[in-house]
Write a structure and sequence with these properties.
Helix content: 40-55%
Strand order of the largest sheet: 10-9-8-11-12-13-18-23-22
CATH architecture of the largest domain: 3-Layer(aba) Sandwich
Strand content: 15-25%
Radius of gyration: 36 Å
CATH superfamily of the largest domain: NAD(P)-binding Rossmann-like Domain
Number of helices: 22
Number of domains: 3
Structural class: alpha/beta
CATH topology of the largest domain: Rossmann fold
Distance between the termini: 87 Å
Number of strands: 23
CATH class of the largest domain: Alpha Beta
Length: 657
């Protein structure tokens, strides 16, 4: 098409688009009143073989047939339809209406005994008139779509997956102002170079070469039933082409006359990185310890604590108490909750969980029914470099909360622990295991009417200190993305899943239970990093792709870091009321012995001697095995702090129950 022709085409389409609805309907009726008599004339010529038969009838007969046809099309709502969204169902209705009109004309001819009129010409006319309607409407629809795609702001996309979902998406995108589908990519060889929904199917390996050629700006993964691990694998492969990817979330949004690709196509979320479907809560368990009760959340300004608060306020508690030692974090979460739920009584308490007087006052004056203890130092390298403060906060905080809860007859007290508490190799994990022992001892004492339990988390996607925010920052500044070891793997869960697990655990607890979420298979951190690089439309720089965007660097394990985390110990595992939550009973220390050991541990902390402190930790947590750090640039600053890792511990022997 020449430049002049394109200008004429654009001007014509622009005027058609700008016309009001009444003008468009008038134009369509006028065009049909001109073309339909010609269609009947062609039918008469085909019936007679020449113009002789056609000339036997005057113009009135032709315009009468055309008027009946226009009336039939009006009854089928053909003129009210928006041409850009016309579909086969409307055309089918138009064809049926035309057939009914012709049948009525045939009956009228029989009644009038018009023997000379060639009735078979009516049948020929149906085929010609219907063909005219289909060609004219579909052709005009395609012209308008072409004009809108060239002159609009629709994003040119490729669709990964040429199955049913991909075909339906391609059809829906034809009517979309947001996206314009260019082609399919699929791994199935039987589909390559085929045409589906009007688009060619190409091998996935050609995406990198064809993206700049076709102007592809985004790839939409149209596999709504694919397992999360497959989506993650596809993301990594698509990312090598340097094209950002989105995902088709809900196929139901493509049903019906008014498809909604804008709602169906979404950005990838954290749950797409899990490698498993998110675990939904059981609603009957969810509100049991919250609705109508006075609730305290410690560490309320942290990632888990704040999400706990967000979930709790939706369950209509009688009152919510927030405790945190960070003024800014406490202010932020209180303002958020007060804005969303202005009628809910919310009290913010600034201070540390190690302050027994403060905790006692909150429980006494607030008449607290349920405690969710989320306050803790959890960043492994920081706690490893500051073991005294880490132990004081995590151990003393748990001891204060457990003692105060029993003293004030709090009904339910839930400790948020960590998978690093299982056979710990670092002080943070050991401190969380000691906190678990404190809650187990509190449950063993009994008599206070308080149900104590613990919840063990894997890594929480998107929480402060998790790898997701770190990787996002590193990718934003152009890399490199730093990973401690190529084989390191972790269990992952969403922040919402973590909060829901905590709330449900309190409802299922019988005393001294440890609850763990079934989180499927662990995810390699390097796979997670590669997926995130692909999500940003970037490529990994490596020997195979030397001109890639982001480099992945392996910096060596941090002090006390494991290659693989565990969730279960050698304790007995029981099913719980939730099919995806496990309950365990583990060995514990006698309460009196544990109290003496914690006193000795706090005395050891006063010395600031790492070897003495680690010996005391080892005496309490027999499974604790300090791990020497591997040499790495980021780990060198910890060398002095970890110099006492191999010192001998004091030879305690503690009886366990």
């Amino acid at each position: 098409m020449s430049i002049q022709s394109r200008k004429v085409f654009s001007v014509l389409c622009a005027r058609l688009v700008q016309m009001n609805r009444r003008a468009k309907m008038t134009l369509m009726v006028a065009a049909d009143l001109v073309m339909l008599p010609l269609c009947f004339l062609i039918a008469m010529i085909l019936r007679g073989g020449d113009l002789k038969l056609a000339m036997e009838f005057g113009p009135g007969s032709y315009f009468l047939i055309a008027a009946l046809t226009v009336l039939a099309f009006s009854m089928a709502d053909l003129y009210r339809a928006v041409i850009r969204f016309i579909d086969h169902r409307l055309l089918t209705m138009s064809g049926l209406s035309l057939a009914i009109a012709i049948f009525c004309a045939y009956l009228a001819l029989l009644a009038l005994n018009e023997i000379s009129f060639p009735r078979s010409a009516l049948t020929i006319y149906w085929f010609i008139a219907f063909s005219y309607v289909v060609v004219s409407r579909i052709g005009l629809r395609n012209l308008l779509r072409t004009y809108r795609s060239r002159n609009g702001t629709a994003v040119p996309v490729a669709i990964y997956g040429a199955g049913e979902a991909g075909a339906r998406l391609a059809q829906a995108l034809r009517d979309s102002d947001d996206y314009r589908a260019l082609c399919f990519f699929d791994d199935k060889r039987t589909l390559h170079e085929r045409t589906i929904a009007g688009l060619r199917v190409f091998p996935t390996g050609r995406l990198a070469a064809m993206a700049p050629e076709l102007g592809i700006r985004t790839t939409v993964i149209a596999l709504p039933t694919a397992a999360p691990e497959r989506v993650r694998d596809i993301m990594q492969r698509l990312g090598q082409a340097g094209v950002p990817a989105k995902i088709l979330g809900r196929l139901v949004d493509l049903d019906g006359d008014k498809a909604a690709p804008r709602e169906a196509i979404r950005e990838l979320k954290f749950e797409d990185l899990l490698g498993r479907p998110p675990v939904p809560p059981r609603m009957d368990l969810f509100a049991r310890c919250v609705r109508g009760k006075s609730v305290l959340v410690t560490g309320a300004g942290g990632s888990i604590g704040s999400e706990l608060c967000r979930q709790i306020v939706t369950l209509t508690p009688a009152r919510l108490h927030l405790l945190d030692h960070s003024e800014f974090a406490l202010y932020t979460i209180r303002q958020e909750l007060a804005t969303r739920f202005p009628e809910l009584p919310i009290q913010a308490h600034l201070g540390s969980v190690c302050n027994a007087d403060l905790v006692d006052r909150i429980l006494r004056e607030g008449k607290v029914d349920t405690i969710y203890h989320a306050a803790a130092y959890k960043h492994v390298p920081l706690v490893e470099a500051n073991i005294v403060e880490g132990l004081r906060n995590n151990v003393l905080g748990a001891q204060v909360i457990a003692a105060s809860a029993a003293r004030h007859a709090v009904r339910t007290c839930v400790l948020i622990s960590s998978d690093k508490a299982v056979r710990p190799t670092n002080i943070m994990g050991a401190s969380k295991r000691i906190a678990e022992l404190i809650f187990q001892a509190a449950a063993a004492r009994g008599g206070a009417g308080t149900t104590f339990c613990m919840v063990r988390f894997g890594n929480v996607l998107g929480s402060s200190g998790s790898v997701i925010p770190l990787f996002q920052r590193q990718i934003a500044r152009g890399g490199p993305v730093t990973i401690t070891h190529p084989e390191v793997s972790r269990y992952f869960m969403l922040i919402a899943e973590a909060a829901q697990l905590v709330i449900q655990a309190g409802a299922m607890a019988k005393g001294g239970d440890v609850f763990v979420l079934d989180m499927g298979e662990p995810v390699r951190i390097v796979d997670l990093a590669r997926t995130m690089i692909a999500m940003h439309g970037l490529t990994e720089r490596n020997p195979q792709i030397p001109r890639g965007d982001i480099e992945i660097q392996f910096v060596g394990l941090f002090p006390g870091e494991k290659l693989h985390e565990e969730l279960l110990t050698d304790g007995v595992v029981f099913p719980s009321e939730h099919p995806r939550i496990m309950r365990m009973k583990e060995s514990a220390l006698r309460p009196s012995v544990l109290e003496t050991c914690i006193t000795c541990l706090m005395m050891a902390c006063e010395t600031h001697e790492r070897g003495t402190i680690e010996s005391m930790v080892k005496a309490i947590v027999a499974e604790y095995v300090p791990q020497a750090p591997q040499a790495a640039p980021e780990a060198e600053e910890h060398t002095a702090e970890s110099a006492g890792l191999n010192r001998k511990f004091v030879p305690f022997r503690i009886e366990r129950i």
